[in-house]
């Protein structure tokens, strides 16, 4: 009998430890699912670059902007669901994924102008915007300077000053895995597959000093905004997320449980529900 109890205790321990590991999804970096088939895709000539884009579904438009070093395919789970009720636009930011870059220094104003030019190319006057990390910062830039182009802004894992970034991200294993994966993806997707290091060096110069918006600038945002973070975000300090939510008038703060900077991959269903609940709010 004692052997039976020992065996049962061992099985119970495995179940409990397995459940604990399952709860730690914020430590994982799942691969995105394959992208659905686009209704339209191509390259838009904007600001001296060729900007890759794809369009899915019909309805009120929503633009999804990926984070630094990434590409549009990170949004596959969100696109599949949102395209049922919306016209979904994704793109690769300048130098990222399939889009080209120039020698012009990176800046969030420049990247925001790329996306506004893409919307002009697609004849979209106004859209909801979902941005992750650098994409969220680009969204905030547009909300501050071109609010007439946005209906709502869902900004996840963004910051408005450089001191909002947690320095611990430099030694974080999940982030290291993301950077390595991004390098592999770059070699597969880019028109300059051997220039990943040069690309990273170029965009890193922007990250050293940007964004750097004052409280007064951020407080002028009038676009209905959600400031969003995983409760285990490795890169953005929680107090900075709280500061942004308090500073932007009427902003809603959304904290995604058991998720990190990469919440759209770790908790795709919950992430998409949060997006839909916010952008479709009447």
Features:
single chain, 282 residues, alpha/beta, Rossmann fold, eight-stranded mixed β-sheet, 8 strands, 41% helix, disordered N terminus
Folded structure, characterized:
With 282 residues, the chain is an alpha/beta fold. It has one domain (39-279): Rossmann fold (3-Layer(aba) Sandwich). 41% of the residues lie in helices and 18% in strands. The chain has ten helices and eight strands. The chain has helices at residues 2-23, 76-82, 108-121, 134-145, 173-189, 196-209, 215-218, 238-247, 263-266, 268-279; strands at 40-46, 49-56, 60-65, 86-91, 127-132, 150-156, 225-230, 252-256. It has an eight-stranded mixed sheet with strand order 1-2-4-3-5-6-7-8, sandwiched between helices. Strand 5, helix 4 (134-145) and strand 6 (150-156) form a beta-alpha-beta unit. Helix 2 (76-82) crosses helix 10 (268-279) and helix 3 crosses helix 4 (134-145). The longest helix is centred in the N-terminal third of the chain and has 22 residues, at 2-23. It is globular.
- How much of the sequence lies in strands comes to 15-25%
SSE sequence, one letter per element? HEEEHEHEHEHHHEHEHH
Please name the CATH architecture.
3-Layer(aba) Sandwich
C-alpha termini separation: 62 Å
By CATH reckoning, the class would read Alpha Beta
DSSP, total strands: 8
* Rg value: 20 Å
CATH topology: Rossmann fold
